[in-house]
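PROTEIN DATA CARD
Card holder: Pectinesterase inhibitor domain-containing protein
Chain length: 182
Origin: Dipteronia sinensis
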Amino acid sequence: MSTLGNHLLLLSSVSIYFFFILQFQPCFSINVPPLINQICTKTKNHNFCVQTLTSAPGAANANLTTLASFSFRSTYAAVATTDAFLVALQPNVTDPRVKLVVTHCRTDYDGSIPPLQLAITSLDGGHFDDVNLNVNQALANINDCHRLIKVGPPPPGLREKSTHVVRLVDISGVISVKLLHQ
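Structure generated from the sequence above:
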């Protein structure tokens, strides 16, 4: 092969290498803090967990209580937003099967708000047993709704919102267990 051919082959190999690195750079460039990695390896969606917790202010040096506060408040906000979505949707649903899903999920989401509020208050007071109890109650309610969404026909948008909330509650659940064992 000629020198020009070798240079072109080398240039194309280098180009492919850089394309690969640039294409998948987010996967390789995240330096996940050890505490976040410990938490996220126990969740059902590691990547979502890492993205969520590394977005917390000061995540690189955050302690467990700080990450718990961020996680619980993020979960609470998502639950409240989804609950408001269900409240607004409920009067407009005419299909009885969809109405059943919306009504059931609204009950579950309504039932998740007080425990999440109590989890946040208990965390601030250092009552980790109460934190765990309340997060698990919210987790059970949200998972109940999510199971029904998989069976019955959900209204447009609810499946995505529910999946997002389930992932957040999963993170909060793992953190609440970790709080008990620290």
